[in-house]
C-alpha cells in the first residue's frame, strides 16, 4: 500500500535540525521524497509499523508533527501533481 | 470527499513569499491547515476544480510544487497523527 508521510519538525535549535535530518533519512529508506517534507512510501503492514516506530522514536512529540495517510493500493489515480518536481537539495535555499 | 493539499513554494524572493501567503489563504477558504504546508479540505467535485484553478493561477510552475491527494469519503480511518498539532503561526519561527 502507499502511505503518504508529511512532517513539520521544529528546527529552531540544532537538535531540531538533527531530528529533521534523521526523519528525512528514515523516510528515504522507505520511499520517495515528493516535496521537502512529504514522502510517498510503498510499504507492507510490517514495514509501515517499523517506519512509524522509528519516526516516533526520533521526533519530539511536543514540538514536531507527523502525519500518515494510507492511500491503499490503487493510489495512482488519486494523486495529482502541478508545478516543479521535488527539490533534492534539502540543504539549499529555503522552500516550504 | 477529502482532498489533501501539500505544497512547496519557493520563498527566496518577495514574490515567492507573496505566492506562499496567497496559496495558504486560498487553502484556508476550503479546509483546515494540519501542518505548515499541508491542508485537508472537504470539498465536492466543483469546489475541488475551483480550488485547483485558483492555486494554479497563483503558483509559479517552474519554482513551486502543488500536490493533491484524493482521500475519498471514508478518510477518517486513513489518517494518523503523531506529535504536536498544527502551528497556526505561519509567520513565526521556521518550521518545515
From TrEMBL, chains A, B:
Annotated CDD domains: Cas2_I_II_III
Cofactors, names only: Mg(2+)
Keywords: Antiviral defense, Endonuclease, Hydrolase, Magnesium, Metal-binding, Nuclease
Molecular function in Gene Ontology: hydrolase activity; metal ion binding; RNA endonuclease activity
InterPro entries (UniProt xref): CRISPR_associated_Cas2 (IPR021127), Virulence_VapD/CRISPR_Cas2 (IPR019199)
Pfam families per record: CRISPR_Cas2
Coiled coil: none
GO BP of this protein: defense response to virus; maintenance of CRISPR repeat elements
EC number of this enzyme: 3.1.-.-
Subunit structure: Homodimer, forms a heterotetramer with a Cas1 homodimer.
NCBIfam families, alphabetized: cas2
PANTHER family, sorted: CRISPR-ASSOCIATED ENDORIBONUCLEASE CAS2, CRISPR-ASSOCIATED ENDORIBONUCLEASE CAS2 3
Protein task: CRISPR (clustered regularly interspaced short palindromic repeat), is an adaptive immune system that provides protection against mobile genetic elements (viruses, transposable elements and conjugative plasmids). CRISPR clusters contain sequences complementary to antecedent mobile elements and target invading nucleic acids. CRISPR clusters are transcribed and processed into CRISPR RNA (crRNA). Functions as a ssRNA-specific endoribonuclease. Involved in the integration of spacer DNA into the CRISPR cassette.
Family statement drawn from the similarity comment of this UniProt entry: Belongs to the CRISPR-associated endoribonuclease Cas2 protein family.
Name of the protein in question: CRISPR-associated endoribonuclease Cas2
